[in-house]
Amino acid sequence: MRKSFKLDEIDCANCALKLEDAIKKVDGVDDAKVNFMTQKLTLTAADDRFADVLEDVVALVAKMEPDCEVIR
Description:
CATH architecture: 2-Layer Sandwich
Oligomer: single chain
Number of domains: 1
Distance between the termini: 15 Å
Radius of gyration: 11 Å
């Protein structure tokens, strides 16, 4: 499954790249793209694990970029 989510308050392109690299390492993530210009996260993961993977990604984003929020 692939879904896109709005990112609120991603500060710079470098931060977006760091987030993208870290999200790709989360267990269960098949692919991830963070677009600084559109402030969007596109996440790809298995259908049956998507909700759990998304929770892990949201927690990671909050830890790495406390001002950034994944809008679901």
